[in-house]
Amino acid sequence: MIVAVYNAKGGVGKTTLAVNLAWASTVISGLKTLLWDLDAQAASSYVLGQEPAAKLARPSIMKDADPSKLIRPTQIEGLDLLPADDSLRDLDRHFHDLGKRKRLAKIAERLLSSYDLIVIDCPPGLTDTSDQILRAADIAVVPIIPAALSRRALDVIKEHVGRKKGPRVILAPVFSMVDRRRNLHREELEKHQGWPAIPMASAYERMSEERMPVGELMSRASPPVQAIVDVWKRIEKALGR
Fold first, then answer.
1. d(Cα 9, Cα 95) in Å, to the nearest integer?
2. 133 in Cβ contact with 38 (< 8 Å)
3. CATH, residue 80
4. pTM for this predicted structure
5. Are 88 and 39 in contact (CB under 8 A)?
């Protein structure tokens, strides 16, 4: 199965969620997992210990190359990484010129022959690249800061997916960077009580310094880790259905 972590808006905790969900699927559920970093900023790749690589990420997708040759193991047994690099900056234009809407889905299907789950860290924006990813994914986890602009971004995604020829993917909104001391955040959580919430916590910021998922930095009983496990269990249940 394929889980995309996506939002048309940037700065909503996408990479944090993608890395930690990949960790949870591996460590909590014992699934052989691939984290596919498709964001040219390569933040997921950095957190999982990958140094800047040669500019091969986009050519491996657009040409008759084999992206699996770029896969690297991480420090977590059972979790591998298909890293990003800045060649992905041109990926959207190349997808547009290629005109094959399921190119990424076909590549992902081949990669799944070696994995139980693929988690994709998506670039922001509603583009040809995001459309390719949404067509490949079974579930798109959408991190949303409890504020108007993030809510609006979700509405735009829903409208796009709901179109007659839109991607057929389940959208799973998750509140991200939640500060319950703020009235606005509490009000939004009250409106959408069924949505899971990832709290604002310094532990998530430490990930980029320590270069590992939060579950490797803290006890599994800690609130930051428990929040991730809760989101993962919900996704796992949805995938099972």
1. 20
2. yes
3. 3.40.50.300
4. 0.89
5. yes
